[in-house]
Fold this protein.
Amino acid sequence: MGYEHILDMKVYIETYGCQMNVGDSEVILSILGKVGYSLTDDMNEADLILANTCSIRDNAEQRIWGRIEQFRLAKRKNKNVRIGIMGCMAERLKSELLESGKVDLVCGPDAYRRLPALLEELGHTTVAMDVELSRTETYADIEPKRIDSNGVSAFVSIMRGCNNVCSYCIVPYTRGVERSRDVESIVREVRTLWEGGYREVTLLGQNVNSYSYTDKEGKHTGFAELLRKVAGEFPAMRIRFSTSNPHDLSDDILYAIAEHENICRHIHLPVQSGSNAMLEKMRRKYTREWYLDRVEAIRRIIPGCSLTTDVIAGFCGESLQDHLDTLSLMDKVGFDSAFMFQYSERPGTLAARKYEDDVPPAEKTRRLNEIIEHQVKTSGRRYAAQMGKVFEVLIEGPSKKSISDLCGRASNNMMCVFEDKHPDRNRVGSTAKVRVVGSTSATLICEEIENAI
């Protein structure tokens, strides 16, 4: 029996890592839905258990190995259950996963179209694998099956892969080279979301700034033009994007944001280190001075724009002065928030081949804790500085701490919490104007301004 005849099967999927993986899980569910699979949130009733994985740090992979053991418990209850590993870990570990005898299916990020065929193969063999990377696959023609919880915000992948090959990063090896989706397929997906009630989209790429598409007539579209087109066609839709490489953040992109109120005033701009020596060793293609110039341009062209970042502590050969350079850059910029990590050597990367991971683990932890402490204090000041300001908030749902409060993000990506003055209405997806009356280092405490909209 061909896979096209599969009916009433259930798939359980766990997604790990970046927003790109969330988008990929939605593509996977769309592909499987066409051959009769429906999503379940109960692993024990699933016919197919999938983990869409991340390889950016070792602890992410170790977590997956632990989850595989949990999946196997479900398989002991039902021997017909299939276990599959998707995504970056599937690409990186390939044969090791299959040879473990613990999984049935291994499928890389560019092979999701073959999932039905791979499942068909499992009817005739014990294991199936496809991890071939593509130079053209963008899944542009596949309408993702949304699995978000609020029905308000959605991810739209505009490109895949990365050409930067930063020395510490596994992504180019697990996701392949950059390729951009055609403009019209992106616009079409955003239109479908708008018509479906979504009010915010995040345009995704490993480096969205390098989006580049040339159509059959030779017309080229870069990221600034794409922003203008999407924002212009959907003026009531909030537009966000992630992630930006400082090397490719042009003034034209910043002006595109400034020209459109519906492009959110928030840029995630990973710096990784404040030391030029470390940036060069990381192959980041910019200097500390270049980064600070981009920060100055952001604040000049888009006043009030919030800035968030990524920071790595303890990269190969990082001296105490290199670490202090990172702290001084954080002080100079004043990030609103940051993702902060210890360096984790990834086999196969340039850093693993070329450099010694020589910062002692205890010192990595000390430096990371110092960075975190630094940022928490800065975030506290940045959030406290919003006191008295008025923001328009897109309501995402009830607050996690109290069902009598609503929460949502301002354009600058700061989370706002405020009392629901109209509990008789379903306000999810609507906007509210709020005034900031208090703050923590991660939340703005607000009051709603009645009749402001």
User: Anything to note?
Assistant: The two ends are 58 Å apart (CA to CA). The first strand starts at residue 9 and ends at 15.
